[in-house]
Specification:
The structure is a single chain. This protein has 360 residues and is α/β, with parallel strands linked by helices. The chain folds into two domains: 8-222, TIM Barrel (Alpha-Beta Barrel), CATH 3.20.20.10; 236-359, Lyase, Ornithine Decarboxylase, Chain A, domain 1, CATH 2.40.37. 30% of the residues lie in helices and 24% in strands. The strands form four sheets. An eight-stranded parallel beta sheet has the order 8-7-6-5-4-3-2-9. The protein has a five-stranded antiparallel beta sheet with strand order 11-14-17-16-15, with no helix packed on it. A hairpin with a 7-residue loop joins strand 16 (295-300) and strand 17.
C-alpha cells in the first residue's frame, strides 16, 4: 500500500543544474549505489545514461553485474570490490577502485595470468581514514603498476567534511595531500583523471573540481545545506494510506511495550509501513510527523515491523485517506532530521515492498 513516486523530470533538473556548475559537463559521475539511494538502480541508471552521463558508480560487484545484465553499457566504477570477485569484475567489464595493497597485487596477478589489460581507479586516504592507500604507499603503488597490465583511469580521494564551513583546517590538509598525490602520478601519466568532490563538495569547493566530480545525494534532491537545496528538487515522494482508525480512552496504551499512553480520549490511525520498510524504531516518540489532509499528525509508540501509529485526534480523516510521509514540500531530509538521522539513511533504507512508480 505504500508507494514511492519518483519524478524523473526532477532528476533531469538536478543533473542539469549540477552540470551547469561544473567546468566540464561531461565530468560528472552518477552515483547509483544502494539501489540509487532507494530510488531504483535500473530505472535511475537508464535515465542518467539517456541524459548523457557516461560513467556511473556502485558500491559492489553485484550492483555492477545487475546494471550489465540490464543492458547498461556505460563505464561503471565499483568502489568496494571484493578481492574474491575480481573475475566477475573483468568478465563484466567493470572498473574496480583499488584501495589496498592486497587487492592491487591480486588483480595484477590475475591479469598477468589471463594476459589481459584492464582499467582501474586508485583510491587514496587523505584524512577520512576509511579506505585507501596511504600517502606513504605512493612509491610502492607506482612501482607495482608501472609494468602491470593496468590502465589507471583516475586517482581519487574523499573529503571528510565537505559540507562543513569552507576552508577548515582538516579540509585544507586533505587538499594539500591530494595535490601532492596528483603531482606524483602526473609525472607517471599525464592522462590520468583526478577527483575529490562528492555532492556537498561540488557546491562548497567548485575551485577544486579537478577532472571529475561524484554526484550522489544531490542527484536525488539534497545537498546537506538549505541554501544549496534551493537549486535542487527532491526526486521521490513517499505516500501510503490509513488502513484503520481506533478511538482510545484516556490511559489506554498503543503499540508494543505500551509505547504510548493516551493522556486524553484520542483517535489513532494505523499506517501500513514499518521498520521492515525503512521506517526505523528510532522514530518512536520523537515529535516526527506525517501529513493527512495537509495537517501534521505525530508518530506515536514503537514502530512495528509492518505498521506504525499516528495520533489524528485533531484531524478529520477516514480509513484509506492518503498519508504523506515525505514529498517536495516536506522533503525526506526534514523528515529524517526530526528523528535524528539523515536523508541518505531514510532513502537508502526504503524496502522492496514499497512500490516504485516512475513519473516522467
Amino acid at each position: 500500500m505504500a508507494q514511492l513516486n519518483i519524478y524523473l523530470n526532477r532528476l533531469e533538473h538536478n543533473l542539469n543544474f549540477l552540470k551547469s556548475i561544473s567546468p566540464d559537463k561531461n565530468s560528472l559521475i552518477g552515483v547509483v549505489k544502494a539501489n540509487a539511494y532507494g530510488h531504483g538502480i535500473i530505472e535511475i541508471s537508464k535515465k542518467l545514461v539517456s541524459m548523457g552521463v557516461s560513467r556511473l558508480s556502485v558500491a559492489s560487484v553485484s550492483e555492477g553485474k545487475l546494471l550489465r545484465e540490464n543492458d547498461i553499457n556505460c563505464n561503471i566504477i565499483v568502489y568496494y570490490p571484493d578481492p574474491f570477485e575480481l573475475n566477475d569484475i573483468i568478465n563484466y567489464s567493470l572498473e574496480p577502485a583499488i584501495y589496498s595493497k592486497r587487492i592491487l597485487k591480486k588483480i595484477i596477478k590475475l591479469l598477468d595470468k589471463s594476459k589481459r589489460d584492464f582499467s582501474v581507479h586508485l583510491k587514496f586516504n587523505t584524512g577520512l581514514n576509511r579506505l585507501g592507500f596511504k600517502f606513504e604507499d605512493i612509491e610502492w603503488v607506482i612501482k607495482k603498476i608501472d609494468k602491470a597490465r593496468l590502465r589507471v583511469l583516475s586517482v581519487y580521494s574523499h573529503l571528510s567534511a565537505s559540507e562543513d564551513k569552507k576552508n577548515n583546517l582538516n579540509t585544507k590538509k586533505q587538499l594539500k595531500i591530494f595535490n601532492e598525490i596528483k603531482s606524483k602520478f602526473y609525472d607517471l601519466n599525464s592522462e590520468i583523471k583526478y577527483h575529490l568532490l562528492n555532492s556537498s563538495g561540488i557546491f562548497n569547493y567548485p575551485e577544486h573540481q579537478y577532472d571529475w566530480v561524484r554526484s550522489g545525494i544531490s542527484l536525488y534532491g539534497y545537498s546537506n545545506n538549505s541554501d544549496w537545496d534551493k537549486n535542487l528538487l527532491p526526486v521521490a515522494e513517499l505516500k501510503t494510506k490509513i488502513i484503520q482508525i481506533h478511538n482510545v480512552k484516556k490511559g489506554e496504551c498503543v503499540g508494543y511495550n505500551n509505547g504510548w499512553i493516551a493522556k486524553k480520549k484520542s483517535k489513532i490511525a494505523i499506517i501500513p509501513i514499518g521498520h521492515a520498510d525503512g521506517i526505523g524504531r528510532y522514530f518512536k516518540n520523537r515529535n516526527v510527523t506525517v501529513k493527512i489532509n495537509q495537517l501534521k499528525a505525530p508518530i506515536i509508540g514503537n514502530i512495528c515491523m509492518d505498521i506504525f501509529m499516528i495520533d489524528v485526534s485533531h484531524i478529520q480523516c477516514k480509513e484509506w485517506d492518503e498519508v504523506v510521509i515525505f514529498d517536495q514540500k516536506n522533503p525526506a531530509n526534514i523528515f529524517a532530521e526530526s528523528a535524528g538521522t539523515i536523508s541518505y539513511e531514510i532513502l537508502s533504507s526504503l524496502g522492496n515492498r514499497i512500490k516504485r512508480v516512475y513519473i516522467s
